[in-house]
Amino acid sequence: MDIDHLSLSCEYQPLIEPLSLTLWGYEALARFKDAELRPIPPNLVFERLHATPELFAQVEYLAKSFQLEHAPSGRLFINIDPHGMQGEWVKPMLALLAPHANLTVELIENTCMNEAQMAIDLVQIFKQHGVSCALDDIGAPGTMLCVELMTKMDYLKFDRQWLTKLDDGDHYALLASLVDYGKHTGKLCILEGIETEQQLHWAKQLKVDLVQGFLFRSQFINPVQSVSCNKALALMLTDLKMLA
Length: 244
Fold this sequence. Notes:
alpha/beta
């Protein structure tokens, strides 16, 4: 993927306690723009980067570094794709993340057993370094649920797709059971994609611990800073070589 004219920034979306509506923490999300400053969907950028694993890992590291540098105080969730933290990139990423208190790493829900094993291996590494972990996008279209991976998590994040199916008894019962499992095992449960008061009401009924979504857009934080991916990667790689 051509990143010569790609700029990187981020957005911090609040995690909210559904009953009190108090702020609990933030999730950091990567944001990209092209040369004309038009937004580019992050999933499109990372999907294309998968074809070049080394560049993918570099951009992943750069994104996390930017998110940590500009983060608000308090609890922070960041996303890690297991493909972006393999081989020689494990140590640099750990060195970047582990020193930060109140940091939780979100690992994406998996689409095959190989990815599930990659995520399990990463969770073990993070836990050894005192970093808590969340399983992201549970129930998203095209994903599968790995029971072993779920048991190792500190947080369970349920995809917005559940909100389109809560009027179906089977789906509601399944989500309620997963939330109940989380409560019995000390895992905080987060429901994503809350956009309406009705959806917030469902979250309260389900007794999830935290919610997230555009209903709380007034509390989103968008740093004014951005970096050129091409230039920032060159500086970053130079710095990492000096530290090696």
